[in-house]
Batch of 3 targets.
Target 1
Amino acid sequence: MKHLTILEPLSDAERAKLNAKIVRRHFQAGEELLTQGMELKSAHFVFSGIVQVTRQVQDGRVLNVRKLGPGDSFGDISLLTGMQSLGTFTASTSGLLLELSSDDLKPIIESRPELIESLSHSATKAQQFVAMFDKAAIQPVPFEQHDLLSRIKTFFHLELQ
């Protein structure tokens, strides 16, 4: 738990309290762990295994967003706000998730309201990433072969013809 970004502002004692409440969940390859749009009030930390993240964008396409592995987390926004899942999370391999409920975090936030700002930072970064991903999916940056050829030649300081 010491290496989880969202929990960095917490004291060792606070982390120990949360660690005692962590729910461990084993998963198998191919298992859908979380569906886009599903409401949840928890964060998940990948202890072992690989999880593929996909997102359905406005035009209906389902795009691969990224892969998560040990040490990665998802659901940070949901832990803090109860928002719906921003993507679908499917196990690529078998592994273990650690789940932390917002109900378990609540007593710590109530006793230390100053934590809300630092905790919201990681959630904001996740929301910004999703917004950029959606924008790029809708309006991909076109690359013409001629433009790319010019960039390669310029990068290697080759004579342009």
Target 2
Amino acid sequence: MASIINLEKDLNKLRESKAGTYLLLTGKLYSARDAAHKKLKEMFDKNEKIPEFLKNSIIYYMGPTPTRPGYQIGSCGPTSSYRIDSFLELTLKIGIAATLGKGEREDFTKDLIKKYKAPYLITIGGASAYLAECVVSSRVIMFEELGAEAITELVVKDFPVIVAIDIYGNDIFSKNLDIA
């Protein structure tokens, strides 16, 4: 049974969820891939103001495909999170509440997740058309010139995720974790 998380009201419930917990997210997510993270780092390094909407939000490592007629977004499956691990501490310093992608992360990320109390969530790779059905609206809000790698605001309803690494450092990829 999945717990329902309203992203505007239940961030503490999200943060306290243990590794292996199934959640259904409702609210706003922000997609950002490699190129958007690089531009955020450039802004941070130049002491430019980072947009407030990123604080207490979830960054979804995803780049959508073109939108088909009658849909809010094209396929929107996760990308491999390890590709963006070098930017994790930066985004957590900015105030990101959680990250969302697919697959294992580099070993050092567990310490960052614990330090900033920002869990790592995964969703179903290979089910991007299904995930698109959970998107109520989608709009590019930053770095439009990056195309599919722009930062996109996604309003989602019952978007399925699993807590892969919780704020205590427990992870579903560990052979010692009991998630039954």
Target 3
Amino acid sequence: MMGAQSFICVPIVFESESMGVLMVDNMRSNRHLRHSDLNLLIGVATQIAISMKNAQSYQKVLASEERIRSLSENAPDIIYTLDINGAFNYINPAWEKILGHCTEEVIGQYFIDFIKKEDISNVIHLFKQIRNEKLTITERVGTILHKDGSERVFNMSGAPNLDLKGNVIGIVGIFKDISEQKKLE
């Protein structure tokens, strides 16, 4: 019915998972398909399977990144990352809502730029423990200065931010605003 003299069907398979079928016919050519054509198509089908799997994996990564971005962007608490020297390289939008500084005013600045002078040595010591000893801290109460100079009280957490090899590349954590609770106490 198709007018083909011969055709070849090759499965598209990746790690025992059938992903489809590659079918080639000879409708435009008068020659019969040969074993060498089959070998070529098997190689092509393998490359198609790898490309399809890569595309699926990429879509999963994009979906995962979107979920994480959405969680961070919509979280009511401040989520942050510091680089290996203590400078902010990420803050979520909660920072501006709670502390008044826009992202551009915070990124690249050091955490100690946003605390009282008398707290600096304690914060540096704690930062070094997290960075050098891979210590994780939770529920440490501290203050961060609002853009207007007022103090906000936070329940702070921090943990080493590790690369794929387990090397510390900075700190990741959360600041939960407990200022209203402290006022009531």
